[in-house]
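Now for one record:
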Amino acid sequence: MTVKQSKATASGSSGADIAEWDIENEAFWESKGKRIANRNLWISIPALLCGFAVWGMWGIITVQMLNLGFPFTQAELFTLTAIAGISGATMRIPASFLIRLAGGRNTIFLTTAMLLAPAIGTGIALQNPSWPLWSFQLMALWSGVGGGNFASSMSNISTFFPKRLQGTALGLNAGLGNFGVTTMQIVIPLVMTVSIFGDFGGESTKLVKDSGWIFGKIAAGTPTWIQNAGFAWVLSLVPLSLLCWFGMNNLKTVSPDTGNPIVAFAKVTYLYTLAFLPAMFGLYLYLPAPTGLGLISMWVAIPLDIVSALLVMRLAAFGTMKENVAKQFQIFKNKHTWSMTALYIVTFGSFIGFSMALPLAITVIFGFQHLVDPATGVLSHTLKNPNAPSALTYAWIGPFVGAAVRPIGGWISDKVGGSIVTQIISAVMVVASGAVGYVMLLAYNSAQPEQYFLAFMALFVVLFTASGIGNGSTFRSIGFIFDRQQAGPVLGWTSAIAAYGAFIAPVVIGTQIKAGTPQNAMYGFAVFYALCLVLNWWFYLRANAYVKNP
C-alpha cells in the first residue's frame, strides 16, 4: 500500500480497511463515522435477509413436499426443519468470532456468497423426489450457513455505531434482516407457481394435495416448480455478494490481524468447516435410523453440540487465530453472558423456532379432521379437512409482525432501558403461550379444527410481536451491560444459543403432535418464559440488581 493510500485509509475516507475509528467522539461521528456506518448497515441488512431466507426455507419447503406427495412421513419432514435449525445455530458459534479474526467486509462478503451452494443444491435435490431422505437432510444441514451469518452480521454492525445508537442500529439490522423469514414465506409459494428459469429450471410436478400462497388456495393437480424454492435466491445472492465486496469495510481497530483477503477467507472457511463436524456428529447420534443411531435425546444433543463446537474451535485454532479465540472466550467468565443468553432464547429463540415450526404445525393440526374411530375408540388424525386453512397463506403473518416491530423494540429500549421492556414482553409471552396451548388442545380434538384457527393465529401474532420487541430490547441491554470489546462476541454467542430454538421448537411441537398432546409444547414454553421473567428481574430490575437497567 502506498503512503497516499495509507493516509486515505487511516482517515476513513476511502479504502476497504479503515484504521481510525473513534465513534464515541461526536465530531468524528458526524464528520466521517455516520456515513460509513450507515453504508455498511444498509448493505448488511439485505445480505442478512437472504441468510435468514436460505436458513428458514425448509419450513415452507417441507409443507410443499407434503403437498406434492414426497415419500416421507410427517415426522421425517419435521427433521428437515430441525436439522437446518441445529446447523444454523452451530454455525453461529464460530461466526460470533469471525469479525475480529477476518474483518467485517471479508466475512460478510464470503458468507453471503456461500449461500449460493445450499440454494442451488436444494433446487437440484427438489427436482428428484425419489432421492433418499439423507440427501434432503444434507441440504438442510448446508442451509445452516444462512443461520450462522446472523452472528457475524450483528457482531460487525455493533462495532460501527456508538453506544447511544446501538439499540436502533442493531434493531434495524436484525429486524429488517429477520424479514428474510417473511420474505421467504411469501416468495417461495409465489416462485413455485411459475417456470421462472424456463428449460434451465427443470420440469414441473403436480400437486397431490391443495396448496396455497398469500392470496389463497392452489388446487390439487396444479403444476408446481418446487425446485424454484432454492434456485430463486441466486437472483439476489450474486449482486448482493458483489455489493458486500465493493461497499463494506474492515475496521482495523476491531480486526487488526486479518491478513490479506485470501487469508481472511481461509479463516472463515476453516472455522465454518469445523462447525459442521459437531453438528453432524450430534445429529448422527440423535436422528433415528436409517439416517442416524437414535441414541440420545434432543436435550443431550444440544449441549453436546455446543460443547463440541467450542472444543473444536479451541483445539483447532492456531497462530494469531488461537490468541484471538482465547481472548474472546473470556466472555464465558462473565455471569451476564449467561443471563443474557437465557433472555435472548426467550426472544429470538421463540421468533425463529415458531417461524420454523408454524407452517407444518398449521398443516398437521388444521389440515385434518380429528375424529374418534368407532371401531377402536381412539382419536384419528388421518381424514383430510376440506375446510383447512393453507399454511402457505397464513404462516408468513407472524414472522412479518415480529420482524417489523424489532426496530421499535430497540428504539423504545434506547429511551426507557432494555430490561424493563424485556420484563413486560416476557409476561405477555407467558400468557399468550399458555393460551395457544389451550387452543391447540381444542383444535386437535375437534372434527372441525378450523373454527379455532382465528384464535390460534391471533395468539401466535401476539407471541411474535412480543418476541420481536424483545429481540430489540435484549440486544440493547447487551450494548449497555458489556464494554465494546466484549459486546460483539456476546452478541454473537447469545444469538448462537438462541438459534437452537429453530431446532427445539420443530422437534418439541412435532413430538407432542405425534403424541396427541400439542398443547404440552406451548405449556412448557410458558413455564420457561416465566422462569426467565424472574431471572431478568433478579439481574437487572430489583433494587440491588447487578446492573441496573434502567
